[in-house]
Design goal:
Elements lengths: L2 H12 L8 H9 L4 E4 L6 H11 L3 E5 L3 H13 L5 E4 L5 H9 L6 E4 L7 H8 L3 E6 L3 H6 L10 H7 L4 E6 L4 H10 L6 E4 L7 E7 L3 H14 L4 E4 L3 H11 L5 E4 L5 H12 L5 E4 L14 E4 L6 H8 L9 E7 L3 H10 L5 H13 L7 H10 L4 H13 L14 H31 L5 H8 L36 H10 L6
Parallel strand pairs: 1-6, 1-7, 2-4, 2-5, 3-4, 5-6, 8-13, 9-11, 9-12, 10-11, 12-13
The structure holds one DNA strand.
Length: 508
DNA sequence: CGAATCACGCTTAAGCGTGATTCGGTGCCTTAAT
């Protein structure tokens, strides 16, 4: 079809002369109103895949984005190329701004929103007045990774799409297993989608898993790597307090900061910016850090704690070496790590007692309205986590126990209880299965780690790079060391750490 | 779920046992009006 047309638009709107791999194919499928599921590595130009069709199509494009910061970035990027008809509809807008925006929504070609905002009926009503011709889900693996408990509104996107008249859907992600891809297809109600996958292997990242004898050894190792390896680098932890402690230990030798979700937004933004601008050598972070961070020259990623799934591992190490230069990913493991990883699986969803109690209470209030205030009371009364309550609420609506006007319908207690218990068990089994795969990968040191990782995403390793992984050959870490590195001065970190632990949190 | 730590009571008053408490990732969105 319109080959000239695509090239012309690419040149006129984006100032580019040629497409990167798969971009053309994806755009052509979208232009043919095919649903598309695309797995492209970060930096492969995913945004263009919806931006260009938006210029060629009638109507507007709705982009579902997981983070407000990501929306803001995209909006800014579009404004840079001169696009004015773009809006991020999120909580950064005041009530007044939102009202104005809903009235003028037809002015916008690009509308960014979170899954949560798409549950707002006023917003949906306003969207229904428009001609939405493309429905984009950015970072679509979030549907599977977050939708089942943490952010259940992700599971409602298929319904939202229906409400908008089933526009063409483009789901984009950088890392998804076949199971996750199936989940995305099902949840978004993709009809016979065109699928585009590229290999997830990153040949310039050497992979290394190192067993150490104790936690003390782990700290020593991690500190020494941070001092010796050429930066900048990222260290991932599974707890906020560890991020802060380790930052304090490194502070003397390195320019370092921590990053986790317990910080103020402004501070997070500042730290991220400093890291991107090469003002920091090392960043100590939880899994909160990374999505939407465009930095090419990260040289190493250390996992002080490993994540509970290989999808997260792949995303996290993938933040190294985007410039294609040699980089290294090191995972440090010791006794007791399994416990921390599995604890993260079990803590969020309600236990059986809580579940039974809250369901009885709700049933007792049948035919009254489930107000926000009452939700808050339930959450406190039955000591449910925010995620725990949202999980219950999602299923109450799914099972029509709460109708569209939030009125509670009388229900069969045992039946609903059993249903929810089964849901929770299924969810935990799924997470357990993923953790098990993670453990197999960590502890099976007889097969090539790279091949195992690629196989988990159902790919096949074409060729092994020079520095592959620790099961293939020893990785010479000297090659990844900073040339200017002097012999590091060993402080007495153990005493420092003890002092920190005694005095609780580290002053920022 | 499970370990580490804390609080407390028992007691040949310094240290032990026991039970309670704490700690372990991720982010939208926050009222009524449109």
């Amino acid at each position: 079809m319109k080959i000239l047309n695509l090239e012309k638009t690419l040149q006129s709107h984006f100032g580019l002369s040629s497409f990167r791999p798969l971009q053309r194919e994806i755009i052509e499928a979208v232009m043919h109103e095919k649903d598309v599921l695309a797995m492209l590595p970060t930096g492969a130009g995913k945004s263009l895949c919806y931006q260009l069709p938006t210029y060629l199509k009638q109507g507007s494009t709705l982009i579902v984005s997981p983070l407000v910061s990501l929306m803001e970035d995209q909006v800014q990027q579009l404004r840079m190329i001169g696009e004015k008809h773009v809006i991020a509809f999120n909580s950064f807008l005041s009530y007044r701004d939102k009202r104005i925006a809903t009235h003028q929504l037809s002015n916008y070609k690009f509308i960014f929103a979170s899954p949560e905002m798409l549950q707002n009926s006023f917003f949906i009503n306003a969207l229904q007045q428009l001609n939405i011709t493309l429905f984009v889900v950015d970072e679509a693996h979030c549907i599977s990774q977050w939708g089942h408990d943490f952010r259940p509104d992700y599971l409602r996107l298929g319904e939202v799409r229906q409400q908008l008249g089933e526009p063409t859907c483009l789901a984009l992600t950088a890392s998804a297993t076949p199971r996750v891809l199936d989940d995305i297809k099902e949840r978004l109600c993709l009809h016979n989608p065109s699928s585009f996958y590229t290999n997830i292997d990153r040949p310039n990242i050497a992979m290394l898993v190192e067993k150490v004898d104790s936690l003390d050894d782990k700290i020593t190792k991690a500190l020494s790597y941070c001092r010796v390896l050429e930066g900048p680098g990222i260290i991932y932890f599974s707890s906020r307090s560890w991020c802060e402690r380790f930052t304090a230990l490194l502070e003397k030798d390195k320019s370092v900061a921590f990053y986790h979700a317990g910080m103020e937004h402004s501070e997070r933004k500042l730290v991220q910016q400093q890291f991107i601008n090469n003002q920091l050598d090392v960043i100590c972070a939880t899994s909160a850090f990374g999505m939407g961070v465009n930095k090419n020259n990260v040289r190493y990623v250390i996992h002080f704690h490993y994540p509970y799934q290989l999808e997260s591992y792949l995303q996290e190490i993938g933040r190294a070496g985007r410039d294609g230069e040699p980089s290294v990913a090191i995972t440090l493991i010791t006794k007791g790590d399994e416990q921390l990883a599995s604890s993260l699986i079990h803590q969020d969803l309600p236990n059986e007692n809580q579940l039974l109690a809250v369901l009885s209470e709700i049933n007792g209030n049948a035919s009254s309205q489930l107000t926000k205030e009452r939700e808050r009371i339930y959450q406190i009364q039955f000591q449910l986590s925010e995620t725990g309550w949202r999980f219950i609420r999602y299923h109450l609506r799914e099972q029509h126990v709460v109708d569209e006007n939030d009125i509670i319908q009388l229900f069969e207690l045992d039946e609903l209880y059993q249903y929810l218990v089964n849901q929770i068990i299924a969810r935990q089994k799924d997470k357990q299965y993923k953790l098990q795969a993670m453990h197999e990968w960590l502890f099976n040191s007889s097969e090539c780690r790279r091949a195992q990782l690629v196989a988990y995403f159902q790919g096949e390793l074409q060729s092994k790079p020079k520095y592959c992984c620790d099961t293939c050959q020893p990785i010479p870490l000297d090659e990844f060391s900073s040339p200017s590195n002097q012999k590091p001065e060993w402080g007495n970190w153990l005493d420092e750490l003890k002092a920190l632990l005694l005095h609780g949190h580290v002053e920022a």
